[in-house]
Amino acid sequence: MSNKSTPSTEPAGEIWVDETHVGNGRLAQTASTRRYASRVLTALLQERELLEARMAAVGTRDPMKRITGHSAMENAISSTKEMIAAMDRMLAQMGRRLPVQAGDPGRP
């Protein structure tokens, strides 16, 4: 007899996890952090577009991008994507494949 229960669907169909098999809570915490990171990434991507439009409107460029080739916002987006990928690997190792909404920017 299996102890598996039906997975619960999170709001907006983002990510679900069978919380009856969480054990000490690490799986639930990791899944929650993954959902939060996805929302942060979405916000960063939106803000980057707004920032670039504002800078273009006033005729300026990001000073960090001029020097390093990457803006601070691009670095934050890249780091967030790397963290999401690491959490996806951890969740897979924990034995759960979490369905993610098609538009999730954290997916490769």
Describe the structure.
With 108 residues, the chain is mainly α. It has a domain at 24-93. The protein is 56% helix and 0% strand. The protein is built from three helices and no strands. It has helices spanning 26-58, 63-68, 72-93. Helix 1 runs antiparallel to helix 3. The chain starts with 25 loop residues before the first helix and ends in a 15-residue tail after the last helix. The model is unreliable at 1-16 (pLDDT under 50).
Give a nutshell description of this structure.
This protein is 56% helix and 0% strand. It has 108 residues and is mostly helical.
List the helices and strands and how they pair.
Blueprint: H1 26-58, H2 63-68, H3 72-93
Helix pairs in contact: 1-3
* Outline type: elongated
Low-confidence stretches: 1-16
Total helical elements: 3
Q: What fraction of the residues are assigned to beta strands by DSSP?
A: under 5%
**How many DSSP-defined strands?**
0
Distance between the termini: 36 Å
As a whole number of angstroms, the C-alpha radius of gyration is 18 Å
Series of H and E elements? HHH
- Helical fraction equals 55-70%
Which structural class should the secondary elements be placed in?
A: mainly alpha
Features:
elongated; 108 residues; 56% helix; 3 helices; single chain; mainly alpha
